[in-house]
Amino acid sequence: MLDGITLADPGTDKVIRVSPVGDQILSSREEIRAECVASQTVNFNFYLAASDNVFCSLSKIQPEVVRESFALDGKTEEQSVRVMEDLIQLFSRRAAKGSAFGFVADRYAELHQHFHWDDFFVGKKHTPSEWPIVLGCSDNFSKLKVIPRDLYTRTQPGPNCNLFRKTDTVSP
Question: C-alpha distances in angstroms, 6 versus 19, 46, 52, 96?
């Protein structure tokens, strides 16, 4: 669990998966796991508080690579920072275990219509159209050297984990 963030709505104890067209489907943790095995993309909600959800999408972009996307639409700055910090901690733990190699947190990622972070992390794009607020990567990430050190403060919160936080932003 991440800082009180839960899969079930604390007000109703319901777990909600979201269909490709946005319909809510009453589900369970086990059904979401099974759907992850059976499908290319699985959408569901996490909850910060009763009826206060964060949309999550898991997509297989290569046979052994899954992208996790989280939408913070409608969240306050404080809520957004809380979720991003929790996700940074989760990435750091996963990178230390060798089960994660890339992380991006940015306010306006959806505005870049012709650039996808997948292309940077597993594709042929060597640099993004704009550098994000926070970028994380494992030690063996092939493009580690192209990250502009003058834009970021670099930390290594654990083994195999490099975090770059943009120096011209206040948070996260």
Answer: 20, 6, 11, 23
57, 69 Cβ separation under 8 angstroms: yes
**163: Cα within 13 Å, side-chain hemisphere:** 22
Q: How far apart are CA 109 and CA 131, in angstroms?
A: 10
Longest CA span, the chain:
47
Q: Are 87 and 72 in contact (CB under 8 A)?
A: no
Is residue 44 within 8 Å of 22, Cβ to Cβ?
no
Looking at the whole model, is its pTM more than 0.90? Answer: no
Return the structure tokens found at 150.
Answer: 């003058």
The closest alpha carbon to 58, from 2, 92, 20, belongs to 20
Query: C-alpha dihedral over 11, 75, 111, 102, to 10 degrees?
Result: -70
- Tell me the pLDDT tens digit for each residue of 59-73: 999 888 999 999 888
Residue 63 · residue 47 · CB < 8 Å: no
DSSP secondary structure code for residue 4 in this structure: T
User: What is the Cα gyration radius of the chain?
Assistant: 16
